[in-house]
């Protein structure tokens, strides 16, 4: 089946630094990828929709200058958390929509801890 | 606005017992409904989905769910739970163009299985 991989799975950084998380579709092309954020014991909240070759669409309340999304190819989207602060600590999950089935496939998530 | 409610935050069952996880949705049109499972530190895995047709849908790992329009529900069931089913379960409704572009998730139900 289709596989979506995220890297890194865990990252710890100091406050004020930037962190990049990659989301790759390994065996299919994904024109659209989605980034979610999950706080402990809460549900996933959609942050933004990443479209290959165009600007990402952010959900209301999500700072686009803080959470930079780049979808430069049909198999890779990146989320960069800029000037990270402890409140940005969270579990970030991406999903990719297959071009054939349209089904969403989720990555294994990336846990960010900002000290 | 679309929303998903999972009334049970935490459920505990004995191994071999039957299971039903509740999900209620609010959506103006015919919904696309999903159930996902998330093991600790993992991404989401699709258990099953309902788009149209037979209201009783079969999924992986022996799960099934029934769409009841009159009750706006899409409850997940399994006749005999295994210890490996312990995880977090999320119900979701498709809320975008094509009803699969964006998913709105419920807050999840944590399933604990006792031997």
Poorly predicted regions of chain A:
none
H/E topology pattern of chain A: EEEEEEEEEEE
How would you spell out the order of helices and strands of chain B?
A: EEEEEEEEEEEE
Biggest chain pair interface = A-B, 23 and 18 residues
Largest sheet of chain B: 6 strands, mixed
Q: Work out the helix count of chain B.
A: 0
Could you give the count of β-strands of chain B?
12
Assembly level: heterodimer
- Helix-and-strand structural type of chain A: mainly beta
Average pLDDT level of chain B:
90
Helix content of chain B: under 10%
- Largest sheet features of chain A: 7 strands, mixed
Through-space gap between termini of chain B: 41 Å
State which percent range the strand residues of chain B make up.
over 45%
Rg of chain A is 13 Å
**By helix and strand content of chain B, what is the structural category?**
mainly beta
Number of strands of chain A: 11
Cα end-to-end separation of chain A: 37 Å
Structural commentary:
The complex is a heterodimer of chains A (115) and B (115). Chain A has no helices and eleven strands. With 115 residues, chain A is mainly beta. In chain A, the strands form two sheets. In chain A, strands 2, 4, 5, 6, 9, 10 and 11 form a seven-stranded mixed beta sheet that branches. Chain A is globular, with a radius of gyration of 13 Å. The model of chain A has no long low-confidence stretch (mean pLDDT 90).
Compact description:
The complex is a heterodimer of chains A (115) and B (115). With 115 residues, chain A is mainly beta.
Supply database-style keywords:
heterodimer, A: 115 residues, mainly beta, seven-stranded mixed beta sheet, four-stranded antiparallel beta sheet, B: 115 residues, six-stranded mixed beta sheet, 0% helix, 50% strand, globular
What topology does this entry show?
The complex is a heterodimer of chains A (about 120) and B (about 120).
Chain A (H helix, E strand, L loop, with lengths): L3 E4 L2 E4 L5 E7 L4 E9 L5 E8 L5 E2 L8 E7 L2 E6 L8 E9 L5 E3 L3 E5 L1
Parallel strand pairs in A: 2-11
Antiparallel strand pairs in A: 1-3, 3-8, 4-5, 4-9, 5-6, 7-8, 9-10, 9-11
Chain B lengths: L2 E3 L4 E5 L4 E3 L2 E3 L6 E6 L5 E7 L5 E3 L5 E5 L4 E6 L8 E8 L8 E3 L3 E6 L1
Parallel strand pairs in B: 2-12
Antiparallel strand pairs in B: 1-4, 3-9, 5-6, 5-10, 7-8, 8-9, 10-11, 10-12
């Amino acid at each position: 089946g289709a596989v979506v991989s995220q890297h890194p799975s865990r990252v710890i950084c100091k406050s004020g630094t930037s962190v990049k998380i990659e989301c790759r579709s390994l065996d299919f092309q994904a024109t659209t990828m989605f980034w979610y954020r999950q706080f402990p014991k809460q549900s996933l909240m959609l942050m933004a929709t990443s479209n290959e070759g165009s600007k990402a669409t952010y959900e209301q309340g999500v700072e686009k200058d803080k959470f930079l999304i780049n979808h430069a190819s049909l198999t890779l989207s990146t989320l960069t958390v800029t000037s990270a602060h402890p409140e940005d600590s969270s579990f970030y999950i991406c999903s990719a929509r297959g071009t054939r089935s349209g089904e969403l496939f989720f990555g294994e998530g990336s846990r960010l801890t900002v000290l | 606005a679309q929303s998903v409610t999972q009334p049970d935050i935490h459920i505990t069952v004995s191994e071999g017992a039957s299971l039903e996880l509740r999900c209620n949705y609010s959506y103006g049109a015919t919904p696309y409904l999903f159930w996902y499972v998330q093991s600790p530190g993992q991404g989401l895995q699709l258990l099953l989905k309902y788009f149209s047709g037979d209201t009783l849908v079969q999924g992986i790992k022996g799960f099934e769910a029934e769409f009841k329009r009159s009750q706006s529900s899409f409850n997940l069931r399994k006749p005999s739970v295994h210890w490996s089913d312990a995880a977090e379960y999320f119900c979701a409704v498709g809320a975008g163009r094509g009803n699969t572009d964006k998913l709105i998730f419920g807050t999840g139900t944590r399933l604990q299985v006792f031997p």
